[in-house]
TrEMBL record:
InterPro entries: Cu-oxidase-like_N, Cu-oxidase_C, Cu-oxidase_fam, Cupredoxin, TAT_signal. Residues 110-204, 240-349 form the Plastocyanin-like domain. Residues 35-57 have a biased composition (Polar residues). The keyword Ribosomal protein does not apply. Keywords: Copper, Metal-binding, Oxidoreductase. This is Multicopper oxidase domain-containing protein. GO terms for molecular function: metal ion binding; oxidoreductase activity. Transmembrane segments: none annotated. It comes from the Archaea. Gene3D superfamilies: Cupredoxins - blue copper proteins (2.60.40.420).
C-alpha cells in the first residue's frame, strides 16, 4: 500500500487515515450501495484485447526525488492497461485499454508519468530507456534552459531514441518552479497515449506547506487508445472529441480513492499548496468549493505578493502550470474540486464523474457520507 495517502505529495499516512475512518466508517463501507448507470463511456467492455496481451496495469504516479538518487533517473517506456475508474458505480467502468506509460527506474509504470523532483542548482541526467520499445520516443522538459541537443525535439536536434536504444539528456535545474515533461515525437499522439508528467524544481531554501499535492488534468479521446489496442475504432487528431476527463489519470469517483486516486486530505488550520498542471489539449477552469485560494506561481514564475488576490476558480490552458495556496479554514467536511466545464465532470452520460476530486477534512473520515464515497470509489478498509 502506498504511503502517504491521497494525491501525490505530503498527505497523511495510511495509519493516520485508518485511524481517522474509525470502526463506524468501516462498518458502513461493508453495507452501502453505490449508484450505477448504463451511460458508461464505452458501450462494451474494452478489457478483453488488452488483457489477452498480458499488459501491466498502471499505478498512480509517484514522486521521484532525483537528488536522493545521485542526480540521475531512468525513464523506461512501457505499453500498459489503464484503469480510469474500474467499477460500475457512477457511469463506470471507464478504461483505456492501451496507454504508453513512463516507468521510473524499477518502479511501476504510471499515467501520468512519475513526478520528477529536484532542487535548484542540482543538474540531472535523465536516461530515456527505449530498449524494449516498439516505436521511437523523446523527452522534452518545459521551463528550464538547457543545451540545444537536450531539447528533446527530433526535428530540430536530430536526436530520436529509436526502439532498442537509450539516450541520456542533461537537464539543469536552473528555473525553479513546477514544470511539465512529455514525449515530443509525434506529440499529437504520444501525449494522448499517456507520455506526460510533472517536473518540479524546488527553489533553494524551499519552505514546504503543511500539506502539498500535485495534480495533473487531462482530456482524452478514448478512440485513440482503443484503436491502438487493436479494437474496432477509428481516430484522427483532426476530429478529436474527448470523452474521458481525468485528474492524475483517474475519473470520479475513483479520484476520491485514498490510494488509487487523488483526494486532498487536510486537517483544519493546515496551509495547503497544490501544483496544478494541464497535461491535455483543452482549457480547464478549476474550482474549489468553500475555500478561497491565491495563485502564487505560474509556469514556474513566482507571482509577487502585491499581484495576488483571493479567488475560487482558475483557468488552465494546455501545458500551463499554476501553484495555488489556501488555508483549510472551513467547517470540517468534504468539498469538491472540479473543472467547471460541466461536461468535463461526467462519465459518459452520467453526472457527476470525470474531472472531479475533493478536499477531505481528516475530522470527517469517520462519517457515513465519507464511507459511502469510499464505496463508490472502490476502497475497502
Amino acid at each position: 500500500m502506498s504511503d502517504p495517502i491521497g494525491a501525490p505529495g505530503t498527505g497523511v499516512s495510511r495509519r493516520e487515515f485508518l485511524a481517522a475512518t474509525g470502526t463506524a466508517g468501516a462498518g458502513v463501507l461493508a453495507g452501502c450501495q453505490a449508484p450505477t448507470d448504463q451511460g458508461s463511456v464505452q458501450e462494451q467492455s474494452t478489457t478483453s484485447a488488452a488483457r489477452q496481451q498480458n499488459l501491466p496495469t498502471t499505478s498512480p504516479p509517484e514522486v521521484v526525488n532525483v537528488d536522493e538518487q545521485g542526480g540521475s533517473v531512468t525513464l523506461k517506456t512501457q505499453p500498459a492497461f489503464h484503469e480510469v475508474h474500474p467499477l460500475e458505480t457512477m457511469g463506470g467502468p471507464v478504461e483505456l485499454p492501451r496507454v504508453w506509460a513512463f516507468q521510473a527506474d524499477d518502479r511501476d509504470p504510471s499515467v501520468p508519468g512519475p513526478i520528477i523532483r529536484t532542487t535548484e542548482g542540482e543538474d540531472m541526467e535523465v536516461t530515456l530507456d527505449n530498449t524494449e520499445g516498439m516505436r521511437a520516443h523523446t523527452v522534452h522538459f518545459h521551463g528550464v534552459q538547457k543545451a540545444w541537443k537536450d531539447d528533446g525535439v527530433p526535428t530540430t536536434t536530430g536526436i530520436t531514441v529509436d526502439p532498442g536504444e537509450k539516450h541520456t539528456y542533461s537537464i539543469p535545474a536552473n528555473v525553479p518552479g513546477t514544470h511539465v515533461y512529455h514525449c515530443h515525437f509525434q506529440t499529437h499522439r504520444h501525449i494522448d497515449m499517456g507520455m506526460y508528467g510533472i517536473f518540479r524544481v524546488d527553489p533553494k531554501g524551499y519552505e514546504p506547506a503543511d500539506k502539498e499535492y500535485f495534480m495533473t488534468m487531462k482530456d482524452w479521446d478514448s478512440r485513440l487508445n482503443r484503436m491502438m489496442a487493436g479494437e474496432d475504432a477509428s481516430y484522427s487528431p483532426r476530429t478529436r472529441k474527448p470523452d474521458v476527463f481525468t485528474i492524475n489519470g483517474k475519473s470520479a469517483p475513483r479520484t476520491l480513492h485514498p490510494e488509487k486516486g487523488s483526494p486532498l486530505i487536510v486537517e483544519q488550520g493546515d496551509t495547503v499548496r497544490v501544483h496544478w498542471v494541464n497535461g491535455g489539449y483543452m482549457n480547464h477552469p478549476l474550482h474549489i468549493h468553500n475555500h478561497r485560494f491565491q495563485r502564487v506561481e505560474k509556469d514556474g514564475g513566482v507571482i509577487p505578493e502585491s499581484a495576488r488576490y483571493d479567488m475560487d476558480i482558475c483557468d488552465l490552458a494546455p501545458a500551463e502550470r499554476h501553484t495555488i495556496e489556501f488555508t483549510a479554514d472551513s467547517q470540517p467536511g468534504i468539498y469538491l474540486m472540479h473543472c467547471h466545464k460541466v461536461n468535463h465532470v461526467m462519465n459518459g452520460s452520467f453526472y457527476p464523474g470525470g474531472m472531479l476530486s475533493g478536499i477531505v477534512y481528516k475530522q470527517v473520515m469517520d462519517t457515513d457520507i465519507f464511507a459511502q464515497l469510499m464505496e463508490y470509489a472502490g476502497y475497502e478498509v
